[in-house]
Amino acid sequence: MSRMAMAIDLAACVGCAACSVACKHENEVPIGVNRLWIRNTTIGTFPNLTTEFRPEQCLHCENPPCVPVCPTGCCFVRDDGIVDIEPMKCIGCSACIAACPYDARYMHPDGYVSKCDFCKHRVDEGELPACVTTCPTLCRSFGDLDDPNSDVSIALRGARRVDLLRPGLGTGPKLYYLNAPARFGLIGEEGQRSS
Amino acid sequence: MTEFYALPNDVHFWHWPTLIHFFLVAMAGGAAVVTTVAHFTKHPMARTYALVTMVLIVLDLITLWVESPSRFRFTHIWIFLTFNPAAPIWLGGWGLSIALVGSFFVWLQKGPRMLWGALLVLGSALAMIYPGLALAANINRPLWTPVVLILFPLTGMLTVVSIAHLLRQPWARTFLAPLSLASVAMGVVYLAGLMMGGTEARMAFDYLMGHGGLLFALGLVLMAVVPVIRKVPVVAALVPLAGATIIRSLIVEVGQIQFFGF
């Protein structure tokens, strides 16, 4: 058993969207939907402005709310902790889309729900997800949380600050945001409104 | 800017066919409840009610099939080949199917009465609670509060009783006003819960008011006036039917919003 996870250093992310392009290409994601997107937010009043480039995708939660609501069991958690979908069992009911607190899922034009799967086809071959290998600022770390020597564990230990998206929901995301530029953490969390 | 810099995937995942499904499943579930009561009380119309229930369930299942993006992949069979009782849609699928079987045998008037009655009790209960459960299960969507667990079965029964009143069923008049007023009360509780909730609940209340507040109020008024107008059968039937349908549709449609990251 392992717990595959990802960390993104927001202090290093420049919002170039290379990760998003690589994801589209690697996973043949249709036009109009995204497995990975960049939320670009600026808060404050000139000259005191803070800009955050925040890549978002499926967070592969420890307690994924999308899994129990699936009526066919096509949404499941793999042994390595990756939240996965079996398209041949999906009825396209969108219950998992409704349940996802992060809007990470979309309806594929072929009639099944899809989302980021940490490039499982690459991970199964011992490779890193496409977004990780593509990032020009090396802001992404990936690996097994249970392995103290994995890239993600090392990045988490070295971070000045670690944030999660919507931690109050108790989903236990396994996508960590490191070193958020705003002093209070991620923009848009806990009632913070972007401007 | 490219599409990579944007809000995530489509806010609305359920579209107008889903609203028709929510209307039909209320009718089908409510009709199954009426059939169950008629079956156990040996009501002379029990066979007719069973037939109506079957027609409504089949119509609802056809709607579900037509709206499904995977309709030609026939993956729906997996609902019946797997065991996922925590999934509201699994419960709803089984509930409608059980109610369909129960209604069929009640209509046939053959076999063990108690067994068909038990099937109807189980099927109608599942079909009635499933729509509200399918919404309330999503704690991330602030407009789908636990109140819909009561509001949806109430308004569902109200739609069926309204139709029964329209078709001059004598018993329907007895239940029309109490169900209407109970639905209005739960509608008010629903709004009050949002107004008195946390930051996200109040944002959701403002969003609802901005995207259908007047319609919501109209729905409540239409249900509230039933005690006054119930002497005119057609009006007394159509007015609460419209009110209940407006309230249900608004909650499903507008409630798909969540305020993550906005």
Overview of this protein structure:
The complex is a heterodimer of chains A (195) and B (262). Chain A has 195 residues and is α+β, with helices and mostly antiparallel strands. Helices cover 16% and strands 25% of the residues of chain A. Chain A has a four-stranded mixed β-sheet with strand order 8-1-10-9. A two-stranded antiparallel sheet of chain A has the order 2-3. In chain A, strands 4-5 form a two-stranded antiparallel sheet. In chain A, strand 2 and strand 3 form a beta hairpin. Chain B is mainly alpha-helical. Chain B is built from eleven helices and no strands. The model of chain B has no long low-confidence stretch (mean pLDDT 92). Classes of the chains: A alpha+beta (195), B mainly alpha (262).
Which structural traits does this protein have?
heterodimer; A: 195 residues; alpha+beta; Alpha-Beta Plaits; globular; B: 262 residues; mainly alpha; Formate dehydrogenase/DMSO reductase fold
Could you provide a short overview of the structure?
Chain A has 195 residues and is an alpha+beta fold. Chain A contains five helices and ten strands; from the N terminus they run βαββββαββααβαββ. In chain A, 16% of the residues lie in helices and 25% in strands.
Helix content of chain A: 10-25%
**Biggest interface found:** A-B, 51 and 43 residues
**CATH fold-level name of the domain at 4-60 and 116-178 in chain A:** Alpha-Beta Plaits
Number of helices of chain A: 5
Strand content of chain B: under 5%
How many distinct beta strands of chain B?
0
Structural class call of chain B reads: mainly alpha
| Radius of gyration of CA atoms of chain A, rounded to a whole number | 16 Å
Instruction: Work out the strand percent of chain A.
Output: 25-35%
Widest β-sheet, arrangement of strands of chain A: 8-1-10-9
